[in-house]
Amino acid sequence: MYQKTIRNSFTLDGIAIHSGNLSEITLHSAQPNTGIVFRRVDVDPYEIIEAKIGNVSNTERCTQLKNKHGYAVSMVEHTMSAVRGMGIDNVIIDVNGEELPIFDGSSSYIAAKILEVGYLQQEVPKTYLHLQHKVRVEHGTSFLEAHPSSTTSYCVCFKNEHHVPFLSDQTSYFNFIENDYLTDIAPARTFCFKKEIMYLRSKGLIQGASLEHGIVIGEKKIYPNLRFPDELSRHKLLDLIGDLALNPYFHAEIIGSGTSHYLNTLFARELLKNLR
């Protein structure tokens, strides 16, 4: 198996959910062993921010990365998830500001565009790190754990911690061999609870949010209609794939419950310490 990059560059734009600004990203092919690299092209000279777990600087309602010069990119998790989910090893992502677009709250736009422009196989072998023993990280009642495996799989549970009467706990599973990221995971949208909206906006978050950008869980129903019965847990899984893509490719069985960007990145650090 060999490393892959995208065959052609492409550009997508949309609203940045937290700032409310228009945001644009352009994905370019990259040389073998580049990994995933963000470039802030709104500054001159542009600033490079490597997509590595050590560069995580904030995990409140998204994952933010920052370089040593203090330049950041946020809302990286959906793009990271699409890149990892579609099997891309090397890509340069230009961003014209600090926050990436939210699109429809899923990673479908990016994943579909990667498929459209095609892959370029590179003449350098793809390598996977392996886990020798179980790793577990807990935060309150939430947890993530990894078990040694010859493949990569995810099992994530969404817990109905707000005790919404018409919601139940959900569990979603994904395996890179048996499942298709583009159809099974990429369409799952981000979500929030209606009772959180005023508080989040008071903190300067979700300034650009609308029902075009994700799911709102109200007191009596969900807006708009779900794409999957377990869309909430599928999106949690989407986020987890993206946050763990801040580590090199690995083989492990990942199991989690009540996951968040904070827990995901805490777990990613511990996982990396134990991968060989």
Automatic annotation (TrEMBL):
InterPro entries in alphabetical order: Ribosomal_Su5_D2-typ_SF, UDP-acyl_GlcNac_deAcase, UDP-acyl_GlcNac_deAcase_C, UDP-acyl_N-AcGlcN_deAcase_N
Gene that this sequence comes from: lpxC
GO cellular component: membrane
Catalytic activity reported: a UDP-3-O-[(3R)-3-hydroxyacyl]-N-acetyl-alpha-D-glucosamine + H2O = a UDP-3-O-[(3R)-3-hydroxyacyl]-alpha-D-glucosamine + acetate
Enzyme Commission numbers on file: 3.5.1.108
Coiled-coil parts of chain: none
Function (record text): Catalyzes the hydrolysis of UDP-3-O-myristoyl-N-acetylglucosamine to form UDP-3-O-myristoylglucosamine and acetate, the committed step in lipid A biosynthesis.
Catalytic residues of the enzyme: H261 (proton donor)
Keywords, alphabetical: Hydrolase, Lipid A biosynthesis, Lipid biosynthesis, Lipid metabolism, Metal-binding, Zinc
UniProt protein name: UDP-3-O-acyl-N-acetylglucosamine deacetylase
One Pfam family per UniProt: LpxC
Entry's Gene Ontology molecular function annotations: metal ion binding; UDP-3-O-acyl-N-acetylglucosamine deacetylase activity
Species, as recorded: Paenibacillus xylanilyticus
EC top class named in words: hydrolase
Cofactor: Zn(2+)
One of the GO BP terms on file: lipid A biosynthetic process
Residues that bind Zn(2+): H78, H235, D239
Family: Belongs to the LpxC family.
SUPFAM superfamilies: Ribosomal protein S5 domain 2-like
Highest taxon of source: Bacteria
Recorded metabolic or biological pathway in which this protein acts: Glycolipid biosynthesis; lipid IV(A) biosynthesis; lipid IV(A) from (3R)-3-hydroxytetradecanoyl-[acyl-carrier-protein] and UDP-N-acetyl-alpha-D-glucosamine: step 2/6
